[in-house]
Amino acid sequence: MEVILGDTPVGPDHPVYCIGEVGINHQGDIGLVEKFFQMAVLHEWDCIKFQKRNADLWPETPYFSKTFNSEMTYREHRRRLEFGLDEYNQINEWSIQYRIPWSVSVWDNASVQFMMLGIDGGWDIPFIKIPSACLTDDELLVATRHTHVPIVLSTGMSTIEQIDHAVDILGGNNLILLHCVSTYPADNSELNLKCIPMLMDRYNIPIGYSGHEPGLQGSLFAVAYGACVLERHITYDRTAPGSDHAASLEYEGQRRLVRDAKLHHMMKGTGQKVVYESEIPVMNKLRRV
Questions:
Q1: Any idea what the CATH number is for the domain that residue 163 is in?
Q2: pLDDT tens digits, residue range 58-92?
Q3: Whether 57 contacts 31, CB under 8 Å
Q4: What are the Cα distances from residue 243, in Å, to 69, 101, 152, 184, 192?
Q5: Which domain holds residue 268?
Q6: How far apart are CA 172 and CA 187, in angstroms?
Q7: pTM for this structure?
């Protein structure tokens, strides 16, 4: 039960794969992106991830039409956050320079096609992510499966029947599911981390966790429950303007999370009870019978 993301095997027998979610925290400024690469290298994330979304393809809803920041509609705001080919070519160059992979969440078929153009042009993408909001978009699932790139699918705000349907479309090969609660921030009482082993038993594929809760405990407990992938939003400043910074981890939180999550693989052992060589002197000293 493993999936290869780039050169890295991911599954229960390997250290947790940690994804630093930049998302839209770059605020549409390509100049800020290098800071995220530097941050990711410093804290030893395995990959950083962005979002690719064509705002013009989304239906007219009160959410997209509402006034954002007293200046523009949310749709107009989303347009300003999007990077094009030049920016993603620069991201790919930084990925090579800093030796850390990058990927994206795709929100529509046009974004899948955009990514495939880049991959065909030399972008080395370890996986493509499908966000929770798109789990029920069958056309997007089919288009993403046809890329033949490993897929990571978040399962927030989805029923088990909807997840079953998505897995049927995507197939069980080269697929990782992320347990997720799609509230920002997520309440600790609603994290429902027992879903991680349940999903693992149900689909027999690697299961991870995409966390939006405040603090680190929920994400670390998710790893203890068997999460093979850990995704958290990252930022340089939680007070920066934008919708996701407040639910993101700053420098110290990132350092502690990745460090402690990686320790789990070493600490969990084999499950076979043994007497270690280091215990023998203590046994000889303390055991009476």
A1: 3.20.20.70
A2: 766 666 656 666 677 766 767 777 899 999 999 99
A3: no
A4: 11, 25, 23, 9, 24
A5: 3-286
A6: 31
A7: 0.92
